[in-house]
Design brief:
With 402 residues, the chain is an all-alpha fold. Helix content is 68%, strand content 1%. α5 crosses α13. The termini are far apart.
Length: 402
């Protein structure tokens, strides 16, 4: 029979330190305290503020008193670097090596996130500051047809709108999505789920298309569709073809990466139930990767919405409203912004900023609606409603039969 001795906490001498600074008296047991580096108390926030202030002072003295350095960008970069170094050293002295390393890496990641997020915020603020006062209902329902460049005193002056560009952008992106998204998803399914002798060749082609400059996509459509053998002329559909060349590889690569993270256990379970491969892909793999598929499609649409270079060679631009994308020149929002912002009149520049803001709001609304429609919350609500309706019908049928 084994006899175990009860645990006895170690005794420490007078004035010994344990657990990063806690002073224990002689004869007292040492109690271990769990360290949570990510839990920031008030003293930790104060430590960050003091460290940032100290780094600012060091950089200021170095820039303006000891050296001839200058420039706001360099000052900010040196300030951030000094803050990270001082923050690590201070935490090393106060909390130990592990906590110092964790908090230094967390501070570095936070600074990187702020560096990525700050330009986006500044762009949005700049757009609203420049174009919000010119955004109106008339801007969205009027076109540029019949608008004079300069207003003559005493005569009515018609203000231009962007309806022609809005309709053109919607039709071109719609056609490009209708062509590119199914093709991209099917290509990704072939590469990841089916495979074959042409897998490597198709992957090389998709990768090459990802690196093709946008202007070359427009030049290809211009040479093949507009002035080449087909000789169809400028049209919104030509612009949609050029945007498809840009949209397709983005959808394909994003979808392929999403399909790779679907667990193989789901495929094996479907195969064990005697489901064919097409049924497994349609009913198991694609629904599992639905959120990632929506992200890949939205990213591709966002990239295509902002392209101007291929539209310069394919749609030509038109001040009049053209709702037929297969016949005649058409306008688009990026092309309108590009043309108007280079004109000398301030009214044209204001129209460009208003159109840019309208384009941003359109893309933002599209993203929000797509995210809501693809969310698990909405899917669960729809399924619960359908199940409740089915149960109600079944109950009514049972009561009617009885």
């Amino acid at each position: 029979m084994a006899v175990t001795r009860p645990y006895e906490a170690p005794r420490v001498g007078h004035g010994d330190r344990y657990d990063h600074g806690s002073v224990l008296l002689a004869g007292q047991p040492a109690h271990r305290t769990r360290i949570r580096p990510r839990d920031l108390a008030g003293k930790d926030v104060a430590l960050i503020a003091v460290t940032a202030l100290a780094a600012y002072c060091v950089v200021w003295i170095t820039f303006y008193q000891l050296t001839l350095l200058s420039g706001q960008v360099g000052f900010i970069l040196c300030w951030v670097g000094s803050f990270l170094v001082l923050y690590y050293v201070v935490n090393l002295l106060v909390s130990g090596r592990r906590v110092a390393a964790d908090r230094a890496v967390a501070a570095l990641i936070t600074v990187g996130g702020l560096c990525l997020f700050t330009p986006l915020v500044l762009i949005v603020i700049y757009l609203f500051a420049k174009g919000a006062r010119f955004l109106s209902f008339h801007l969205l329902v009027a076109s540029q047809q019949g608008v004079e460049e300069t207003c003559i005193p005493g005569f009515p002056c018609t203000k231009p709108g962007v309806l022609n560009a809005l309709v053109g952008t919607a039709e071109q992106i719609g056609l490009a999505t209708l062509i590119g998204v199914p093709a991209g998803v099917l290509t990704a399914v072939y590469l990841n789920e089916v495979g074959g002798r042409f897998t490597q060749a198709v992957r090389v082609i998709v990768t090459s298309m990802s690196g093709v400059p946008a202007i070359l996509a427009g030049a290809f459509v211009y040479a093949f569709w507009i002035t080449g053998f087909l000789h169809q002329g400028f049209s919104g559909f030509a612009g949609a073809l050029a945007l498809t060349v840009i949209l397709l590889p983005t959808v394909c690569r994003g979808t392929e990466e999403v399909l790779r993270i679907v667990p193989n256990d789901l495929r094996e379970a479907s195969t064990a139930l005697a489901a064919p491969q097409w049924r497994t892909v349609w009913s198991v793999v694609l629904p599992t990767a639905r959120s990632g598929l929506v992200t890949a499609v939205l990213l591709a649409i966002a990239v295509a919405l902002g392209e101007t270079a291929p539209l310069l060679l394919t749609i030509f631009g038109s001040a009049a409203l053209n709702v037929n994308p297969f016949n005649g020149p058409q306008m688009a929002m990026p092309l309108l912004v590009f043309q108007e912002v280079h004109k000398p009149l301030q009214s044209d520049i204001n129209l460009a900023y208003a159109a840019a803001l309208a384009l941003f709001l359109m893309v933002f609304t599209l993203f929000v609606v797509a995210r809501v429609l693809s969310s698990d919350w909405l899917g669960n609500r729809v399924r619960a409603s359908m199940n409740k309706r089915r149960s109600t019908k079944a109950r009514a049928a049972r009561e009617g039969g009885s």
